[in-house]
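Predict structure. Chain length: 172.
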Amino acid sequence: MSLINLKKELKKLDKDQLIDLIADLYKKNKSAKEFFDFYVQPDEVALFKKYRDKVYEAFYPKRGFGFKLKEGKQAISDFKKLGTSTELIADLMLFYVETGVQFTNEYGDIDEAFYSSLEKTYLQALTLMKKENLLGKFVERASKIVRDTRNIGWGFHDELKGTHYDFYSDAG
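Prediction complete.
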């Protein structure tokens, strides 16, 4: 069904029917519940902390051992969908990369796919920051990420260093 058709159907409902429909959606759909909770009480900081914890748990699960990059990336994607500020999205993306670098420095080199995911997220974060004029706000963290990769293999350090230079070359 298209959005146009959905709107036509929703216009046929009266206010009470719409309220019932939304309440039913709220009860049955976890992401809808989270969206409406944020809509009614928009606490970006609390929401950010919740998603930062999800990213952290993707690398350091409460039970067992082993990273789940897909879950970390999904947390970033879900956070974006809630309509949060660009600054917090960039912050969460950098946190994902920082946590991956920390994980590698604690447990040793992982594999190329792992580093490719971190490289892609680092590039996406810096691209978003440039678009939103946030590069200056995050320069120290972005630089520290690169410094912290010095002893990591698979060309990871060189790739992040090049990406960093592409965005911060004129920053001094």
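Summary: The chain is about 75% helix and 0% strand.
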